[in-house]
Amino acid sequence: MGKRKINTDTAPAALGPYSQAIAAGGFVYCAGQIPIDPATGEFVGTDIEAQTHQVLKNLVAVLAAAGSDLSKAVKTTVFLADMNDFQAMNAVYATYFAEPTPARSTVQVARLPRDARVEIEVVALA
Q: How far apart are CA 106 and CA 36, in angstroms?
């Protein structure tokens, strides 16, 4: 059983030596996404709500390229620059996931790439 690199122009290109996602063993492992508009390469919004929407739109695009979607998500990890943004992020996040919602971890980190306020990674069924 091998692994397959997932790449799409409808999500931001990787900022380093990693893949947007890897499909392997019946799962899709998405790299963390930050709020970059893939068309412009620029950040979308300065508030946590706008940034969370863009991050999740990027993840939707990566999962679609792998033949999956958020309804197949089994685990997410949310990285926040400031845990005070948790409630607002959570309100947006909740609009993207139906029951049964994926398992999730949320952590505050010292800093995110390009000083994003939020980054989210997903593991989903292929």
A: 20
Token pair in block for residue 6: 């997932």
CB 46 within 8 A of CB 52: no
Return the CATH number at 120.
3.30.1330.40
Number of domains composing the chain: 1
Residues spanned by the domain of 67? 3-125
What would the pLDDT profile of 36-46 be if each residue is shown by its tens digit?
A: 999 999 999 99
Over residues 93-116, the pLDDT tens digits come to 999 999 999 999 999 999 999 999
In eight-state DSSP terms, residue 72 is: G
Residue located via tokens 């893949």: 19
